[in-house]
């Protein structure tokens, strides 16, 4: 394939620190995972057939229902080498809590089924240290389902530590989109 052009390398060099800082702030409880909106990032459209942006998360996808992750759909990842997904909840009292990290999703994938992980994708550790979707429980939190288009497949093992996976996602992000549930239904 060859190496990226000078403008592409310069854009990533300028964007990576901003995204890394935003992701790190969220992981450390100081902000939102994947927060901020660097102007150079392309936008991914993210939706779910189960809820709209700004609506409550249906209780079935919380610890009260136990179904697992909600289905998601996205578009706008053309040019990506892989896709990642980070689900986090934010409470101003307790800070951010990461509920799921999935990376190395095939860039041709445009949807995620209910309670599934795309074939070939890997899951990283969450705030609790568990690997996989950790059902959210805090009824008044906002829950963000953020999809990242990446310029590389991540060289991380399954179960990678949260700080490492978030940092690598931030370093390789070229586009981002988010679906937010305002609380749990």
UniProtKB/TrEMBL annotation:
Pfam families cross-referenced by the UniProt entry: PBP
Family: Belongs to the UPF0098 family.
Protein name: YbhB/YbcL family Raf kinase inhibitor-like protein
Listed Gene3D superfamilies: PEBP-like
NCBIfam families membership: YbhB/YbcL family Raf kinase inhibitor-like protein
Residues annotated as transmembrane: none
Native source organism of the sequence: Acrocarpospora phusangensis
């Amino acid at each position: 394939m060859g190496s990226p052009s000078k403008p592409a390398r310069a854009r990533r060099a300028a964007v990576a620190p901003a995204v890394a800082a935003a992701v790190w702030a969220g992981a450390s409880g100081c902000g939102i995972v994947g927060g901020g909106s660097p102007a150079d990032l392309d936008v991914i459209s993210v939706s779910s057939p189960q809820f709209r942006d700004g609506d409550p998360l249906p209780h079935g996808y919380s610890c009260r229902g136990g179904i697992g992750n909600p289905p998601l759909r996205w578009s706008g990842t053309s040019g990506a080498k892989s896709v990642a997904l980070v689900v986090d909840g934010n409470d101003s009292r307790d800070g951010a809590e990461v509920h799921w990290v999935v990376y190395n999703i095939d860039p041709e994938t445009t949807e995620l089924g209910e309670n599934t992980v795309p074939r070939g994708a890997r899951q990283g550790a969450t705030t609790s240290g568990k690997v996989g979707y950790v059902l959210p429980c805090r009824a008044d939190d906002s829950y963000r389902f953020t999809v990242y288009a990446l310029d590389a497949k991540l060289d991380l093992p399954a179960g990678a530590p949260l700080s490492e996976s978030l940092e690598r996602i931030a370093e390789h992000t070229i586009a981002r989109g988010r679906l937010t549930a305002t609380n749990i239904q």
